[in-house]
Specification:
Chain lengths: ~200, ~200
Amino acid sequence: MPQGQPLTVPDDNLTTRQRRNRPLLMVHTGDGKGKSTAAFGLALRGWNQGFDIGVFQFVKSAKWRVGEQSVLERLGALHTETGEGGPVQWHKMGSGWSWSRKAGGVEDHAGDAAEGWAQIKERLAAQTHDLYILDEFTYPMGWGWVDVDDVVETLANRPGHQHVVITGRRADPRLIEIADLVTEMGNIKHPMDAGQKGQRGIEW
Amino acid sequence: MPQGQPLTVPDDNLTTRQRRNRPLLMVHTGDGKGKSTAAFGLALRGWNQGFDIGVFQFVKSAKWRVGEQSVLERLGALHTETGEGGPVQWHKMGSGWSWSRKAGGVEDHAGDAAEGWAQIKERLAAQTHDLYILDEFTYPMGWGWVDVDDVVETLANRPGHQHVVITGRRADPRLIEIADLVTEMGNIKHPMDAGQKGQRGIEW
């Protein structure tokens, strides 16, 4: 267990309190399981501290996160009802985003991803949330659907005290460079490799 | 995103349904962050499916999990109040366990760990929970406070449909061998390496 003792004292002219309160950019990458799950586990902790939480799911299918969405939205409702914890917003890129649901028409994943990022930029500028979870955001970054340099510059210069977690495989080196915490989830053994199918309560 | 398609079809004479419903032994190991956080994220998912969840914290200090404990116990209370989700029990090895709180006396961590494992064995035999989280259990295993062969045999032969997640560094190879899913959380970059101290909402 880390007991909160840093290995080195940085030469950054910050007080311990300032360092303690520094907003973090966290990246969960690698081929193994647990990247998103750990991000949502972090949301639990943030909710308990009263953080305003915004989740942005950059995936076409929302099939795999219904459990977390259901519970985190329930916790957000609990905040509204009783004042416990913090508020939670969950936005997913299905056919368009919840703030601009399109009426049918042509699917445009690249456009949707760019729109999602534009929305997040606005919220970062307005300091809307305390914790942002950009789930599977490495994919639109990797596919060129959003501009990586813009993402990196925006995140590096975000105002105030906003924590950001980004999940997904193959995180761009420029993102790794500016991140405060990077965990690589490595796949040592996975039941699907042995023919096991996904199941209730584990995969969703 | 895995879409639930196994890479191979195993020669185990099980139907897809039987394989789908197979209980899993999961291990989150490695030096990086996210091992316990991902386990508690999994608990979110399980709670949403109505799982009966038992958490057993094999750590001396409970300082670092108060956020998760608070939220998961709140979810357990919500189940009692409204029937939503599933029940949650959270047991930690502080000075003894909650089921046998000692009145002062000599601290005996090895004895407490063995007692915790004996309790878990009883519960596995009685099929008490649907999901067991044995947080930081690799340490008492590594220190010889519990018998690794007994742990491995008990887990491998547990009855019914009980999922188990074990977290902690340096998981024993015998445990890895019988596990269905093993994720290694690798530490690519950690804020404490750069002098950052732990902070509210992130570390607790």
